[in-house]
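In response to reviewer comment 3 from the previous cycle, which asked for concrete evidence that the modeling workflow produces usable outputs, we include below a single protein chain processed end to end. The sequence was submitted unchanged, and the resulting structure tokens are shown without manual editing.
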Amino acid sequence: MLSLHGKIVAITGASGGIGEATARLLAQRGAGVVLAARRGDRIDAIAQDIRDEGGRAATCVVDVTKAEDLRRLVATTIDQYGRIDVLVNNAGIAPISPLADLDAEGWSAMIDVNLRGMLNGVAAALPVFREQGSGHLVSIVSTAGLSSVSPSMAVYAATKNAVRTIHEGLRAESTDGVVRTTAISPGYVRTDLADSMTDPHLREQTRKNMDAVGIPPAAVARAVAFAIEQPGDVEIGEINVRPTTQG
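The workflow returned the following structure tokens.
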């Protein structure tokens, strides 16, 4: 019987959406979790809910664009639980716009959070995984860019595809069985991701699409749980999770 009992998992972007749902589900299934996000009051409240329900949860205020914050997250997890089995790189933003808008600030923000933030997680966790002799890196990517790239999503899709490529590279470098990697690509999920979109038309259209066909964040959380509950000799490399009605 596969189980998450005793797994120690740190999760970025855990103040809402997929990150919050993942923290709640993993804790319900016996994992110890550390919730990381910029909104300290929000993750503290979620962690208290988890503890009130009998789960184990701690928090760490983190800005994933800062390498030192990811190192502190890993250190906090180890201080709290003695080790870190899994790092879930979930933090992400999507200030999408047509390339012709020349939103260089938005482009940089997506590169910093979606790509550099993930790399900061790799840099913080990988040495610890190696020292422990085991570890699992899970990143929430996106179905954006899997086939054709939608208008206005070129840079967003590029950052997510870059994460996917880095995952494959890390997998290829980790065939000694010490480090496992999983890239999980959601389609439309009912989250607050649209809040990071500065273009009001794109923001409203995305919200409508999420409301019309989006799946709950718990659907992605179940995919995360499935990947990390596998025995050490099994690696779930990539999972796509989208609504059945999404084109």
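The two ends are 35 Å apart (CA to CA). We consider this sufficient to address the reviewer's concern, and the full set will be provided in the supplementary archive.
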